[in-house]
Amino acid sequence: MNRLTKRTLLSTAIAVATFQAHGAGFQISEHSASGLGRAFAGEAAIADNAAVAARNPAAMTMFDSAQISGGLSFIQPDVDAKVDTVGGAPADAPTFSATTSNSHSDVAPDAIVPYFHFVKPLNEKSAIGFSTFSNFGLSTEYPSDSVAGPIAGQTELLTVDFNVNYAYKINEQLSLGAGLNAVYADASLVRNAGAAALAAPTTEVANIEGDGWGFGWNVGALWEFDENHRLGAAYRSKVDITLEGDYSGVGTAYVGNPGVTVPGELELNLPDIFEFSGYHKLAPKWAVHYSAMMIGWDSFQEIKATSDVTNCGSSAGTFDGVCLQKDEKWENSWRYSIGATHYLNNEWTLRAGLALDESPVPDSHRTMSIPDTERTWYSLGASYQPSANLTIDGGLAYLNGDSVTGSETENGTEFTFEAGGDAYIVSIGANYTF
């Protein structure tokens, strides 16, 4: 089966059984429409639907009946970038502007992404669950004639997590949970010559595609003081994936094989995640909730594609098997959120939330391919319960990102740039209890 066919089949599967979104770095935060409505505050403790299995498996013991949750999110990023200088010269100088572009709008494409979860109690003390979702993903698309082609181009990463969980209630207050994860990743990267003097701007200088599987684990705990107050904590392990695929570009020309496509590998190190959450119902119709999440982005230090030493080199005449290498040097980051829920009546529940999403990218290593910034989330949401078994959720979020500047050096040429933007996310979902 060829790679295109496998990817088409995977996309079809995702359309009925997963979800994605956009947080700092290339983290995907949206795990439910109800969660979006509160900016994902309290996710490891609330357990208002089956989506909690993806954040804290221990909270599955709060279900006394089987439930499925599914839905769709529409994500509309509004990210712009502009190249200011190339090798110290203005990027819109006549030398470049006749054949290249330097101002780019909407470099992150829109997306429609679904999600799915299932939780089933086994008895009064234990439960199992299955979730299909994504914790990480990104896509940026610059035009092929960008003056900064060597550092921009097209970058895409898709991950899908297949997660099986088990939970056990130790006593009336404490529940523990654990799970296993199989993570599929598919990535592609295209770079063009841009302002390079010896090639047309749209000439591809690097093209790599690959996919692969990795495996990890997750654990969680839930402490229930009483029916109105509880705390949750969860940890998801780092996952290392070897992406295997094809490479073509200048790396093969450096070892005397110009224009040849060779097999290549790229190591992808997905970070671990720790989350602490609280939920407190302070009045019959009001509750507050909060979360602090640490993402171990220090595992993402470089993008490095390799092949056999006779296939690729990092520079002319160097037979080291390095087809492409790019330092990232990311750092651990935190996400903080706080929200409120109003139980209006037996049919309607209203939500609101605020979150701060730190960027893991140090100023010294910000890149055009991932022009990441700190962002603030403003969220609203509601649930409608038309029957005892069915609940319909809706959520809306506005993500306000900072404007930043950066510089990158490629093959001795320095590019300076500025980037920034916002994003809008709308999500709708449904939960059915059996």
Quickly list its features.
single chain, 434 residues, mainly beta, Porin, 14-stranded antiparallel barrel, 22 strands, elongated
- Fraction of residues in H or I helices: under 10%
- Main beta-sheet annotation: 14 strands, antiparallel, barrel
CATH architecture: Beta Barrel
Structural class: mainly beta
Quote the average pLDDT: 89
Instruction: Please give the number of β-strands.
Output: 22
CATH homologous superfamily caption? Outer membrane protein transport protein (OMPP1/FadL/TodX)
Q: Any idea of the CATH class?
A: Mainly Beta
The SSE string, one letter per element, is HHEEHEEEEEEEEEHEEEEEEEEEEE
Query: How far from one another are the termini?
Result: 39 Å
Radius of gyration: 23 Å
Please report which band the strand proportion falls in: under 5%, 5-15%, 15-25%, 25-35%, 35-45% or over 45%: over 45%
What would the CATH topology be?
A: Porin
Notes on the structure:
The protein is elongated, with a radius of gyration of 23 Å. It is mostly beta strands and about 425 residues long. It has a 14-stranded antiparallel barrel with strand order 1-4-5-7-8-9-10-13-14-17-18-19-20-22. The longest helix has 15 residues. The protein is built from 4 helices and 22 strands. The N terminus is likely disordered. The protein has one domain: Outer membrane protein transport protein (OMPP1/FadL/TodX) (Porin, Beta Barrel), CATH 2.40.160.60.
